[in-house]
Amino acid sequence: MLDLNQTAQQRLVMETFFFSYQAFTAKADDMLARRGLSRVHQRVLFFIAREPGLSNKALLEVLGVSKQALNIPLRQLLEMQLVAMETDATDKRKRRLSLTRGGAALEQTLRREQMRLVQAALATAGPTAAEGWLAFNQALADRQDTAGSQDSSEPSVDS
């Protein structure tokens, strides 16, 4: 069991997390960079693929970014014809986003590559570790949602 009060264990956890995230993103980053895109573009593609017809406002909320932060990447994806924007049929003020055929193909390629890596790592770690990994990541994501409203409870540092 990890003792997160020990500096060495804290560093091990952080280092492992950093390197695993680096491995998870490396190939996708290369594929995106060849197109002049980055991770923010991948996140936009992913969430539009998850919910075709997503409104601009809903995309802003799920990404947790400002209109200004989303403007350039979304415009680039629209210009590259990877994303399509249509006026909502019932409310002309709303814009609905969907992936084009090319956008869907890119999103699937990126997701397939990253899932290949995740599946291989989880197969190596075993089913109990896989369930623990998913629970850990869900807890971390939930913590992110509430981070602004809670005091930070940092583990003590043992030098």
Protein model, in words:
The longest helix is centred in the N-terminal third of the chain and has 27 residues. This protein has 159 residues and is mainly alpha-helical. Helix content is 66%, strand content 8%. It is built from six helices and three strands. A hairpin with a 7-residue loop joins strand 2 and strand 3. The protein has a three-stranded antiparallel β-sheet. It has a domain of 97 residues: Arc Repressor Mutant, subunit A, CATH 1.10.10. The C terminus is likely disordered. 11% of the residues are buried.
Secondary-structure blueprint of this entry?
Elements: H1 7-33, H2 39-50, E1 54-55, H3 56-63, H4 67-79, E2 83-87, E3 95-99, H5 101-125, H6 127-146
Antiparallel strand pairs: 1-3, 2-3
The N- to C-terminal Cα distance equals 19 Å
Order of helices and strands: HHEHHEEHH
The name of the CATH architecture of one domain is: Orthogonal Bundle
Which regions have little confidence, pLDDT < 50, spanning 5+ residues? 148-159
* Structural class label: mainly alpha
- Cross-sheet strand order for the largest sheet: 1-3-2
Helicity, as a percent range:
55-70%
- Strand tally, please? 3
